[in-house]
Every structure is written in C-alpha cells, then in structure tokens.
Design brief:
Transcription Regulator spoIIAA; 4 domains; binds 5'-deoxyadenosine; binds iron/sulfur cluster
Length: about 475
C-alpha cells in the first residue's frame, strides 16, 4: 500500500527521471475478456486524455466499454480536485456506487486522477469507503492492469498512490474518443505554485516529453488521418525548460506546424512564459490556430500578487495587446477567479475594468474554492458567499456581453469550420472555427466529419454562431 503525502508532493528536489517504454504484462492480456467497464471522467482535457489511455489499458486486458455504469462490471472514476464542486461530484458518484454494490456484490469500483493524489481523500476512502476496490494516482496510471488484477485476485483494497512523479512512460496504448481530433501531452505537472491551486501537488513537477517522442506521435496521427491536434499541459509555455537549453514551445510549435496537419491548438498558457518567439510562430503558420487561452485570474495587481501569479495587471495587458496586434484575427479566452481571500470591491472593479478592456472571446469564471494544503486555503477568507456570488453574476454579465458583441462582428463573414457532427437538438451540422467558436450550420450537400468547410455566418448568439455551408 502507498498513501500520498502532501510534503513529498510539494518537494521539487531535482531527481532525474527516466524515460521508459511501456510494456504489456503478458500474464494479464485478455484475462478479463467478456467484462465491461465504464469510466467517468471529471475535470480538464488532461484527465480526458488520461481516460483515453486508461480505456486502452483496460481493453488490453479484455474489458469492453459501456456508457451506462449500471451495465458495467467495473466502474472507474477519473477525478478532479481543482474546486470543491468537482470533488463533491465524485463523492456523490461514490455514494451511488455504494448503493449499487449493495445489490451487485461483484461490482468493482476504482478511483484515480487528481483526487487520488490527495492524502485526505485517500484516508477518507480507507476509513469510510471500504467498498472501493482500488485507488491509483496520476503518476502510476500505467500500473492499472496489475493493480486491478491484484484487487480482484486478493479481494483486498489496493491503494497505490505515489506522492512523487516517477519515470516518464512513453508508448502507453490509447483509444481516442474522436477520429479526427487528438490530444497530445507535451508536458506534465506544474511548478508555478499559484497559491490557490492544487495542481502542482496532484500532478507533480514539470516534466517535458522529448521533442522526438511528440513529433513521432503527431506524425502517426497525420498518417492515421487526424485533422487537429491539441498540445496539452498544465502550463504548455514551460515546455522544454527542464530538458533543453535552447528548445521551447515556439520551436516545438514550428516543428509540428511543418508536419502539415491542418489544425494545431495548445493549452494552457501561463502569461509568465509567453515569449515573443511563440507569438511570431503562431502568427507565421496558418495551421497553428489563432486562438489563445490566457488565464488572467484577476485584474488587480494586489490580488495577483497574493495569488502568486508572477505578473501585474499592466504586464498582462501589455502581453495581451502584443498577441492581439501580432496574430491576425486571434481570439483570446481566459479564466477568472472571484472572491479570492481579501478581494475588495475595488480589486473586483479592477477585474471588471480589465474585462472591459480585453473583451474576451470566451471566459471561464469561478468562485474561489479553498483547496487543502494550498497557501491560499490558510488565508483569512473574509469575503461573504453572497458577495462572491454577486461578483460572479456581475462578471458573467459583462463577459457574456462581449461574447455576443464579438460574435456579432462575424455575421456576414465566411469562416473555415471543421465538421464535427450533427447536433441532436437543432438537426444542424456543428463544428469549430479556427478561433474556436462553435458554429451550427446547414448544408445542401452531405458533409463528412473532419472535413474543413467554408461557412457563411448568418446569426450570432452568445455562445455560438449560425450559418450556412457554401
Ligand atoms: N478555486 C477556484 N478556481 C480555481 N482554479 C484553479 N484553482 C482554483 C481554486 N482553488 C481555476 C483557475 C484555473 C482554472 C483551471 O481553474 O482559474 O485557471
Ligand atoms: Fe495551477 Fe497556476 Fe500551475 Fe495553472 S499555472 S496549474 S493555475 S499552479
């Protein structure tokens, strides 16, 4: 049994890690043929992509996938710790599974992902959720087949979570959810330690994948007919810093752009590491999508300092305008937290005025949620919930106003859209523009998913646009 520990997770002592190739344990291949699994994924794209690897690992040992957990022999929760509501959702699901297990004694239940890295969660499971068969963490996903096999053969709860990142494992199998859009990890972990954020503890220190491994993966995706790759990392802008003296995200983007894949996206970018070289490369290559997610978190330099964000309102705005002025037609989206401990009405008004200046194309807005073990969770939280809710509402009103305003400017324009499917509700095709806008559209001819078509925009909504394929 391995239980995670916060102090170890916090440590950033340099330990060289090895890059090792995944190999299948031949003794377990197809051992569970005929069994069905259901995986519930919470949280970000990194988790979604991890679930694609987890699915492939389970399928390699014989499981087949079902969407309804009531039909499954194994239910696995791939969890998220970023805010309390993600946490509560997973525990809510565990409650339902406990009930189900009362009726279905052979049901296997597993938990993994960021919550599994939290000491308090693991202790809770050990004490109060004894029906959970196994828990593994974000650093040893590749061990799932062995851990699951042990849980079943011994009928004993298996808790295998390491506080510190181990080797960087290449060559994990993957079953991708989409046939033309793929996620590609480029860097794991985060060393920024923003004071509110639990990610540096649950995902460990920054570890870049070797450029050759990433480029080979993208080359294979091109061969397999993929049309879009999204390069993933908690902070992609730190790519390469731990591995190379003079190779960074700008260089990687350029090397991938030359592979002739129609669409390249990347996320998430911390403003601190956004270099002029990156901006130049994005502007230069038409297959790097002009769409940047640039979380600001707050418009108040005082709050940004408390958050440990390493930039001020002024330096963020300088970067924002440089990106806007250099990359033609770029869309910029953001994340914003309201109600950080000590946030005054004046601080909040600074956020509102920054939003008025930036007129974001999209924004994800959150109320501060204290996370166990983070420095901000120890700050005196003196903003009342009703005040936080009121600020969130006021903020949402203004961000929504600009989504609609920006969308309205696109009416009458013709955009390149990648066809993703037909929406059930509207019976129209849908897809995303280069700037990542959701477009619903009609077409006189039948379209193929993954194709990039021209759509004339006819109407603007707050979160989408309507148009017609020409
Ligand atoms: N409370 C509220 N929002 C948070 N985020 C990260 N940690 C917290 C927290 N403790 C938000 C940030 C980040 C996004 C992924 O989630 O805005 O950019
Ligand atoms: Fe969290 Fe900050 Fe790292 Fe983003 S950059 S994952 S907000 S610590």
């Amino acid at each position: 049994m391995h239980i995670p520990n916060l102090n170890d997770a916090r440590s950033r002592k340099r330990k060289d890690y090895n890059r090792i190739d995944y190999s299948v344990n031949k003794n377990i291949i197809n051992k569970f043929s005929g069994k069905k699994y259901c995986i519930k994924t919470y949280g970000c794209q990194m988790n979604e992509h991890d679930s694609e690897n987890i699915s492939a690992l389970l399928e390699s040992i014989g499981f087949s996938r079902v969407d309804d957990y009531l039909d499954a022999d194994l239910v696995l929760l791939n969890t998220c710790s970023i805010r309390e509501n993600a946490h509560n959702k997973a525990f809510g699901m565990l409650g339902r599974l406990k009930h189900l297990k009362g009726k279905k004694k052979d049901l296997i239940v597993g938990l993994c992902g960021c919550m599994a890295q939290e000491e308090s969660v693991v202790l809770e499971i050990l004490n109060n959720y004894k029906f959970v068969n196994f828990v593994f963490g974000t650093h040893n996903l590749y061990e799932l087949p062995e851990i699951l096999d042990r849980a079943i053969s011994t009928s004993k709860q298996q808790i295998e979570v390491y506080s510190r990142e181990g080797d960087l494992v290449e060559g994990l199998p993957v079953v991708r959810d989409n046939a033309y859009k793929a996620y590609v990890n480029i860097i794991y972990g985060c060393d920024k330690f923003c004071t509110y954020c639990i990610v540096p503890y649950t995902r460990g220190r920054e570890r870049s994948r070797k450029k050759e491994d990433i480029i080979d993966e993208v080359k294979q995706l091109v061969k397999d007919g993929y049309k879009e790759v999204t390069l993933l990392g908690q902070n992609v802008n730190a790519y390469g810093k731990d591995l190379y003296d003079d190779y960074n995200l700008g260089d990687l983007l350029e090397d991938i752009a030359k592979l002739i894949i129609p669409r390249i996206r990347f996320m998430t970018s911390h403003p601190w590491d956004f270099t002029d070289r990156m901006i130049e490369v994005i502007a230069k290559y038409p297959n790097i999508m002009p769409s940047v997610h640039l979380p600001v978190q707050s418009g108040s330099s005082r709050v940004l300092k408390l958050m440990g964000r390493r930039y001020t309102r002024e330096s963020y705005l300088e970067l924002f305008h440089k990106i806007k002025d250099t990359i033609p037609g770029v869309s910029i989206s953001t994340d914003i937290i309201v109600g950080f401990p000590g946030e005054s009405e004046e601080d909040f008004c600074d956020t509102m005025s920054l939003v008025e200046e930036c007129k974001y194309d999209n924004a994800f807005t959150f109320i501060f949620s204290p996370r166990v073990g983070t420095p901000a969770s120890k700050l005196k939280d003196d903003v009342e919930l009703s005040v936080k809710e009121d600020r969130l509402q006021r903020l949402n009103n203004v961000v929504n106003k600009y989504f609609l305003e920006n969308n309205k400017k696109l009416v009458g324009k013709t955009l390149k859209v990648m066809v993703e499917g037909i929406s059930d509700k509207k019976n129209m095709y849908y897809g995303y523009s280069e700037t990542n806008k959701l477009i619903n559209f009609t077409s006189d001819k039948e379209l193929v998913c993954g194709d990039i078509v021209l759509v004339k925009i006819e109407d603007a909504k707050t979160w989408s646009l309507d148009g017609k394929c020409i």
